[in-house]
Amino acid sequence: MKRIFGALLISMLAFGCGADEKTDADSLPDTVAPPLPQDHTDVVNPADSTKLVLTHLSDTAVVLGDWIIFLRPDSTRFASYSEKLQSGIYDADADFGYASSMTIDTIIGNKSFKGIKAMISTRRFIKVMDCKECPFTIDRDTVNYGIILTGTGRPMKAEQNVYPGAHYIKAVRKYFGVK
Asked: How many CB atoms lie within 10 A of CB 61?
């Protein structure tokens, strides 16, 4: 009996201590912004909409500089919408995917947009570090599709809904003053 218990304990330790592999697309980082410096984690700003606690940090994108952030639902929320037959989520997601890709491709291929970074985020919280009202945290729990435009020293601009790519390109040009 002691041998069986010992063998069971050793096998549990051997097989239970393996490295966890994360394959979910939502667990991958979606921003290249540097991590939040230690001295900024406790900055109190009355304009900040949310106080981040450690449990939120894994679901937070932190941006610094000039950014175009496209907001898309995470895989769990998308799956819950897709279970509803009348939701139209596949059409909305396809339209948004096309529009956001068109906008990002336009920015990457145009020297006028130099220094402006873009990403598509499924994160719930977006922490903007250097806009005019910053630091500022956006809790986008009820926003499925949208765009956030932010730049150093500029007021942040946000829209929620699915629009054609030309609308987003026009909004980006206007916000960043690109002709």
From this structure: 23
